[in-house]
Q: What sequence folds into this?
């Protein structure tokens, strides 16, 4: 087992080291100083391996630290003076949601593909040694921070020590259930592409995490002990089931295909699967009159792919419509909820920057446009002409804004109505809240389309290979994430958000018009 793990770890670290070298070669200025023989340089390979090991250590601790800090510690400030009770409540529910999102078993990672499919590593041995390591990382990574933050929130030390074990128990139970379910249904689910039912359950858990404290309900210590004992007892047969299960080769044979592993994760599997893809294309189109040239070309693309483009937008809009409707009814008829929701919404407009970041579809739509259009069309010289690029950019920006502004409008109207029925505020706050949400929607639409045209990070195999694109995405995520903690008056944040969107839009559009003709090209 140890030898299996060492070999699998070497495979994973070699891939990570090569990725580090590749990223270095893609950085501006530095790429000109590095030769193509870089991969054969033993000294640099050693340095890259050291960097890979360092990144592995960071992945064990930093992710857990930021997870607790942002999802629990920062969010707890909204529930003063009951923030101490919120820590345990949020950790339990978020752990269950995290178990559904990431059990590691059905994650089609590249190291699994290389080891099991290309190098013919025994699937069961590879899974077990790496799964044990996955569980160990959870224990080691969470333990110092559950103790640190738990004691800050006056949680008993014994419970702080139990929390990482609880996470492991949940992972084992959900993982074993997933393996058993896939065997019974003979259908493998890619955890990077969760099912609708999984997304609904996660949405419910998130609503319970941040919604129940509004009405003063928290999972207390007694309930945690009960959940811990039950999960611990169930996790034992779950662990034994996973250990004795001998059909991992069948699971990974179906899961680890080039489409699911080598293609970018932002592109849905249904768009990669030919049969499903053809089912989503509409051949019976009604062509509008008066459209010519690239405007007509884009119109045909939107008509043919309207199911792909609008399905998620409709789903997100419906979820928020139902959610705000229920909240408005509760605010009218439940006094305790009315007071809690008004206190929660008052001064927390920056929180919705993160919400709009989560629901915006700019990155996914640009990836879909590349996959189903630009990947083929960029091979033609006429398609790379400045006039063609700029005309299509205009048409795509209109479509992207339309797709994002529908749920944005529902959220903006929902917040205004919820503020009104829960106690009210000034007319200026109503106006700025509405315009700020709409501005966020427009900002993300422009942001991702401009990045796509200025960096075009995808290769012909639909792999994201530009580190600048990943870095900018990470910075955007980081800023939006930490906006949750900001509590400033609506007048100040709303005005700044609207002004920033206007300035950013002008600058970004200027850069796109100035440089897109040079940067929008097909990568090898």
A:
């Amino acid at each position: 087992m140890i030898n299996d793990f060492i070999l699998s770890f070497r495979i994973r670290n070699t891939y990570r080291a090569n990725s580090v070298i590749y990223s270095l070669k893609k950085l501006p200025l530095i790429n000109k100083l590095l030769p193509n023989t870089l991969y054969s340089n033993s000294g640099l390979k050693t340095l890259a391996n050291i960097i890979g090991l360092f990144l592995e250590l960071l992945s064990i601790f930093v992710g857990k630290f930021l997870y607790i800090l942002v999802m629990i510690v920062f969010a707890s400030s909204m529930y003063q003076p009951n923030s101490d009770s919120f820590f345990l409540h949020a950790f339990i529910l978020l752990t269950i949601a995290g178990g559904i999102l990431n059990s590691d078993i059905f994650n089609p990672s590249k190291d699994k593909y290389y080891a099991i499919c290309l190098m013919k590593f025994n699937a069961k041995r590879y899974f077990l040694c790496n799964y044990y390591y996955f569980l160990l990382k959870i224990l080691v990574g969470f333990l110092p921070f559950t103790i640190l933050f738990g004691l800050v929130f006056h949680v008993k030390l014994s419970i702080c020590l139990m929390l990482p074990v609880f996470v492991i128990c949940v992972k084992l139970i959900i993982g074993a259930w997933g393996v058993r379910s896939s065997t019974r249904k003979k259908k493998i689910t890619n955890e990077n592409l969760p099912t609708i039912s999984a997304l609904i359950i996660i949405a419910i858990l998130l609503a319970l995490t941040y919604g129940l404290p509004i009405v003063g309900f928290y999972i207390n210590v007694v309930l945690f002990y009960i959940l811990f004992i039950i999960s611990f007892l169930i996790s034992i047969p779950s662990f034994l089931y996973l250990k004795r299960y001998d059909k991992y080769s069948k699971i990974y044979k179906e899961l680890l295909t080039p489409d699911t592993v080598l293609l970018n994760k932002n592109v849905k599997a249904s768009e990669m699967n030919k049969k499903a893809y053809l089912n989503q294309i509409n051949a019976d189109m009604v062509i509008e009159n008066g459209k010519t040239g690239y405007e007509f070309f884009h119109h045909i693309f939107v008509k043919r792919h309207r199911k792909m483009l609008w399905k998620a937008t409709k789903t997100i809009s419906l979820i928020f419509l139902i959610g705000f409707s229920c909240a408005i009814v509760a605010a009218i008829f439940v006094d305790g909820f009315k007071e809690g929701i008004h206190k929660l919404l008052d001064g927390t407009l920056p929180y919705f920057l993160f919400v709009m970041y989560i629901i915006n579809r700019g990155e996914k739509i640009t990836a879909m446009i590349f996959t189903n259009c630009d990947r083929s069309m960029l091979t033609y010289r006429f398609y790379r002409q400045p006039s063609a690029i700029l005309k299509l950019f205009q048409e795509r920006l209109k479509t992207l804004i339309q797709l994002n502004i529908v749920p944005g409008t529902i959220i903006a109207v929902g917040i205004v109505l919820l503020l009104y029925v829960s106690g009210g505020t000034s007319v200026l706050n109503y106006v700025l809240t509405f315009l700020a949400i709409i501005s966020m929607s427009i900002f993300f639409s422009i942001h991702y389309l401009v990045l796509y045209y200025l960096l075009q990070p995808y290769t012909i195999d639909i792999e994201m290979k530009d580190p600048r694109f990943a870095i900018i995405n990470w910075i955007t995520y980081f800023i939006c994430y930490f906006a949750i903690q900001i509590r400033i008056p609506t007048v100040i944040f709303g005005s700044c958000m609207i002004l920033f969107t206007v300035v950013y839009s002008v600058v970004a559009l200027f850069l796109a018009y100035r440089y897109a003709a040079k940067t929008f090209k097909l990568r090898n």
About this structure: Residues 208 and 400 are 32 Å apart (CA to CA). The radius of gyration is 25 Å. The first helix runs from residue 2 to 26.
